[in-house]
Design a protein that fits this description.
This protein is of the alpha+beta class. The protein contains two helices and nine strands. A five-stranded antiparallel β-sheet has the order 2-8-9-1-3. It is globular and about 50 Å long. The protein starts with a helix and ends with a strand.
Length: about 170
């Protein structure tokens, strides 16, 4: 009986996997960085061309806080991204990270806007507005927010790719 159940499970998995089709779509990427203090002249660039944003930022003195990727973006989608670490500091717990909601409009030129909550150890929570930002070209990371006081910045990129849909 166990063998029959296992064979049925395998057959269902193969059937479901075979019904997925690759279709073209547009992917959305979000990355956030903080200044690690290793370079006195560090500044976040307004744009970064290509996929290799993490090595470029690391070379300049930036560390990745968060990276997210989504597929088949449609007009009006809200990209909800969070990476939050709970840390004990001097006997109490504090958060470190980001919680962002980014609205994506995909008419002629893409535009993103939204809000991020920033959690900073020893500094509490603060909000960061993401003003409407045009994302006109593919494979270019656009800086969509920067907090100079705390040394943080967020970037957004779009690219065409294959999406898997049922």
């Amino acid at each position: 009986m166990l063998k029959i159940k296992l064979l049925c499970l395998i057959a269902c998995t193969v059937f479901i996997a075979s019904t997925a089709q690759a279709t073209p779509g547009t992917h959305a990427h979000f990355a956030a960085f903080f200044n690690n203090g290793s370079h006195a002249d560090f500044s976040f660039p307004d744009t970064v061309v290509g996929n290799a944003i993490e090595p470029l930022m690391h070379k300049k003195g930036g560390e990745m806080m968060l990276f997210a990727h989504s597929v088949a973006i449609q007009d009006g989608d809200v990209f909800s991204i969070q990476n939050d670490i709970l840390r004990e500091v001097e006997g109490s717990f504090q958060d470190f990270g980001l919680n962002c909601q980014i609205t994506i409009h995909t008419q002629k030129i893409w535009e993103v806007s939204g809000m991020c909550e920033k959690f900073l150890v020893g500094k509490g929570k603060s909000n960061q507005s993401i003003m409407p930002t045009a994302i006109s070209k593919q494979l270019i990371w656009y800086k969509i927010f920067e907090d100079k006081e705390h040394g943080m910045a967020g970037y957004f990129m779009k690219e065409k790719g294959q999406d898997f849909e049922k």
